[in-house]
Amino acid sequence: MNWEVVIGLEVHLQLATQSKIFSGSSTRFGAEPNTQASAVDLAMPGMLPVLNEQAVRYAVLFGLGIGAEIGQRSVFDRKNYFYPDLPKGYQISQFEQPIVGKGSFTVTLSDGRRKTIGITRAHLEEDAGKSLHDAIPGASGIDLNRAGTPLLEIVSEPDIRSAEEAVAYLKALHTLVTYLGISDGDMSQGSMRCDINLSLRRPGASEFGTRTEIKNVNSFRFVERAILSEIERQSDILEDGGVIIQETRLYDAERDETRSMRSKEVANDYRYFPDPDLLPVVLSDETIDTIRASLPELPEAKCERFKTQYGLGDYDAKALCDSQAMANYFEEAANAGGDAKLAANWMLSELAAQLNANNLALHQAPVSAGQLGQLIVRIKDNTLSSKMAKQVFDALWQGEGEVDAIIERRGLKQVSDSGALERLVNEVVANNPDQVAQYQAADEGKQKKLLGFFVGQIMKASKGQANPKLVNELLNQALN
Amino acid sequence: MSVTTRQLAEVATLARLQLRAEQAESVTRSINEILGLVDQLQALDLQQVAPMAHPRDEVQRMRTDEVTETNQRAAFQAVAPAADEGLYVVPPVIE
Fold this sequence. Notes:
The complex is a heterodimer of chains A (480) and B (95). Helix content of chain A is 42%, strand content 19%. Chain A contains 16 helices and 16 strands. Chain B has a domain at 5-42. Chain B starts with a helix and ends in a 5-residue tail after the last strand. Chains A and B meet through strand 2, helix 1, strand 9, strand 15 and strand 16 of A and helix 1, strand 1, helix 3 and strand 3 of B. Strand 9 (140-143) of chain A pairs antiparallel with strand 3 (87-90) of chain B.
């Protein structure tokens, strides 16, 4: 039977501030437990929250980045629930007056189709601590280092219709927030976590079906798998004539299934009310304009510019705009080398392969953009054949110094002096009379093959340094 | 508006409050008296009145994004009911 899938996503994004949203504790990841938890984070009596302006700035930057309404007056509320990693007994969040209102976001799918996904809202809140259930036998251990880390919760409209769309949306969101510099986007450290609201209905139905919420999925791959397994679970139930229970579920990656966490019907009352410890946040037009002025060029605009300014194809432009760092590297290499297409090719083949093989991020690459540019200069002025250029690239990667020094030291200059090459060509032709006779008797297809033999001999005689293009020209003259 | 003993039990569960069976009826009665008072307030026409969450007409001041706190774990854990390996220890909670 056919079902239409309806998905809305809530993304929790950790903002890249130095300190927490309401206290001066560090937000650095990976510290010893509870060494970054202050009296405010621990909810000691009498402690009061003081709002971090950078968290507000980042939230506004996001809102401007998706063209959303900015809440010029936003209010912090208390969301009440009991859990040991939430010492206050409530999470400071925003409910009725969020800092970012309605916006939208367009993503490109693998078949080239464009899809616009509505953003309902985005609001600021604090992260909770971490509960560790295996650290201490018979008890739970609480680490409050994460408590109070600023989060931006980005809520989408139920506009997503497949696992593929969900992943495309998340990837585009990830690219956007790292461009904006408001989050490191490191999913392995929980910087971007996702709750999935999913229901099924008959195609064409106007009402939504009953939904379930899958909590805390923290990788693109798990989002895809969690959605696929939940679709299967719900359609099995519906096709057997059953009903879906509205509940919160957890995705178990090991078993590749979702399972029930708690029933939401009773537990859902968070008793939101405005936090009396925090006054309304009011942003003037000037403040918003100042933040707007700091907006960087966004991924889509950059991608379009790469196509028109550098004449790149769609695929290359998109790949290079995947991250700000990649795009910057490309522009520097292209400008230094004077050939954008070559810069793109080298980055997406050789450089990408090396980074991949060594499990490095771009900013860790031992070859700088300037060095790649210099390499391209030497390819363009015919000093290096593409084969030689690969050797130089490997030497750069090994840290053997600058391009020209490597060429010099390794004696890698390509011979493009036609006089010297002509002598070589004539020598090889004279030394191989049988092959010459074969060549002259052969048809065109076979000639090509035999030409390869001569080129090989000449390259060998020149120790690989002959300019292959020139060799081909000279050979053609000598043989025909 | 009024609540039943059963609704009260649900709210108590959410608030992690232990309500003894013999208390249930009297607490329900007290709460319904309070709700009766709220009903009287509901009779007021407040269409033109904006909700007041904060008594003073001021806006939130913000601080610059700087780390100002140092590690005080030893002091905090000295007054905690239980701590081990740097963690605060609580009865097991697994969902």
